[in-house]
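Take a careful look at the sequence and tokenised backbone pasted below. I need to know what the token row says about the fold.
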Amino acid sequence: LRSCSYHPWEQFSAQLRELTGIDNGYRKCGAVEVGLDGSAVDSQIRQWQAEGLRCDALDRAALERHVPGLHQQFQRGAFLPEFAQVRNPRHLKALPTACQGRGVEILENVDDLSICAQDRTVEVTSASRRFGADRLCLTAGAWTGQLMKPLGVELPMAPIRGQIAQLRVGQLPFKCVIEQARRYLVPRADGLVLVGSTQEHVGFEKRNTAEGISGLLGFAESIVP
């Protein structure tokens, strides 16, 4: 989270809920960042504080107050009290519902999409439709580079597979998000703990693997045995 991006989320989530009746699961739960290198933790704290984020240094006793049962290997950490989470599937359901309520037309599974720019206009063509516009917002994720290449724009974007695992527990062992570098544990209010994520350069392959899920479970156990 960065100070320029996380502030609008609370208001935006409330607006979506008012427009659609869908709760995207936004809630401030705080986050604990753990690390084995104390100097690296201190450096991360200074960076966050320089960006205007609230962040507190934690010793072992403070870590245990936030995360009972945290592995003994962690003696230093940081706490971000304003850290929040959303439920991605709910959020992605609320967004198109709100757009359609405002009269937006959504076309799904469009084949053979191409973009042509000339002078100050942009033309987007599919197998069955043609659209003209003076502005185009392209949010195609890992496919963005493919769409921009015919325009002579090279973007260093590539697909990365991120496997996750969800564990159901009788009682949540902690209430805040736990992060270690780029991996994380996210406690959900309904008793799920999300464990993520792998980062694999395997093209557009989406299938889970035993190796990936096993690695995630091992990571979870290394944080909270």
